[in-house]
Amino acid sequence: MSRRDPHTFLDTLGLAGDGDDIDLLREIEASFGVAFDDEAGDWRTVGDLYWALVRRVGTDEAGLCATSMAFYALRGALEQQGRTDPRAGPTSRLATLTRLPPKRLYASLTRELGLKLPAPPSGWAGTLGLCLCLAAAPGAVVALFQPALWPWLAAGVAAGVALLRLDPGAYGELTLGDLARETAARNNARFVAKGADTRHEAVWRALRDLLAADGHQNVGLETRLIA
């Protein structure tokens, strides 16, 4: 397995152990098609998690690249919808390949391919809506001493929720290759069933990409699970 400079490794995933660790494990189980038992309670590092996956799905047999398989599946679906050039490559920006807003495109690809896609990045409406909802907590504290603020607080939360629901998403600089990598990471078992690589290095890449898709970059075997 390739290793990076240990000085660049993330020290911890920052999980609080208040349920966020369970959510992460469930996502990994869903992607790899496995089930973890009570041994998970003894894990301390990403390496412990990785070796548990290797014991369940790792082999010595070479296979296809799951990310490449996801790329061709996504591009094929876009071609059938008439939404992209068949010459589109991994570096092609999604914003240049379709006129559909992100949420509609992702929903369409999910239906057609039967794969779990990541949530599209938020647009300005979603970002504003999230800020309004997050502001509700300190706003509620202030409203305890200023009851007249409650209607304004309620209106702000309602507006925030509405903006989150109506947000079409944003492509930004996201490429077809980026989407393929995240899609492969979230559907590992599906691609393995079609011949994807399950050697130890491939299992590590799939786990690392899945953690990266959840915001945990530069993860190493020594990275702690709990903060």
What does this molecule look like?
The model is unreliable at 2-6 (pLDDT under 50). The chain folds into 3 domains: 6-63 and 197-226, no CATH class; 66-121 and 173-180, no CATH class; 124-166. The two termini are 25 Å apart. Helix 5 runs antiparallel to helix 7 (150-166). By secondary structure, it is mainly α. It has helices spanning 20-32, 46-57, 66-80, 102-113, 124-134, 136-145, 150-166, 176-186, 188-192, 200-213, and strands at 12-15, 224-226. The protein is flat, with a radius of gyration of 21 Å. It has 10 helices and 2 strands; from the N terminus they run E-H-H-H-H-H-H-H-H-H-H-E. A two-stranded parallel sheet has the order 1-2.
List the helices and strands and how they pair.
Blueprint: E1 12-15, H1 20-32, H2 46-57, H3 66-80, H4 102-113, H5 124-134, H6 136-145, H7 150-166, H8 176-186, H9 188-192, H10 200-213, E2 224-226
Parallel strand pairs: 1-2
Strand composition percent: under 5%
Strand order of the largest sheet: 1-2
Number of strands: 2
Overall helicity? 40-55%
Shape: flat
Main attributes?
two-stranded parallel sheet, 227 residues, 10 helices, flat, mainly alpha, 3% strand
Brief synopsis:
This protein has 227 residues and is mainly α.
